[in-house]
Amino acid sequence: MTSKQRSYLKGLAMNIDPVFQIGKSSLTPEVTQAVDEALEARELIKVTVLKNCLDDGRSIAQVLGERTHSEVVQVIGRKIILYRPAKDETKRRIVLPVK
Questions:
Q1: Region 27-31 average pLDDT
Q2: Is it the case that residue 74 has pLDDT exceeding 70?
Q3: Which residue of 5, 7, 15, 80 pairs with 47 in a disulfide if CB–CB is 3.0 to 4.6 A?
Q4: CATH number of the domain bearing residue 68
Q5: Is residue 96 assigned to a domain?
Q6: Number of separate domains in the chain
Q7: Residue 95: which of 43, 29, 35 has the closest Cα?
């Protein structure tokens, strides 16, 4: 992903609310599956890591990205932005700028 594409996604993500909150149980298989389903439906999601979670936001973002095969767009403090294009091309809503 180029910096131009990442910048475009950051701009889109500014207007969306967090879809998930990760708490003290950290990343469970259920949370990972729910994030995967949300990525398929929305393509771009925002996740909040609560203060009672012992894990670091960056490490959670990296693990979520690997498990859901998505791109970590940005991590700011306790907010994570993930992007993955929909598998069905007819359902894709976000068109990234050309490299």
A1: 90
A2: yes
A3: 80
A4: 3.30.110.60
A5: no
A6: 1
A7: 43
Read off the tokens for 16. Answer: 């969306």
Q: Which residue has the higher pLDDT, 36 or 86?
A: 36
Residues in Cβ contact with 61 at an 8 Å cutoff, skipping those fewer than 6 apart: 47, 72, 75, 80, 82
Q: Which two tokens stand for residue 66?
A: 């690997």
65-90 CB burial, b ≥16 within 10 A, e <16: beebebbbbbbeebebbbbbbeeeee
Domain that holds residue 22: 3-85
CA 39 to chain centroid, in Å, comes to 7
* Residue 18 pLDDT exceeds 80: yes
Average pLDDT over residues 55-72: 93
Greater pLDDT, 78 or 99:
78
What count of residues does the chain have?
A: 99
Average pLDDT over the chain reads 90
Q: Which residue's structure tokens are 């990972």?
A: 32
CA neighbor of 85 nearest in space, from 28, 34, 9: 9
Strand partners, 79: 48, 76
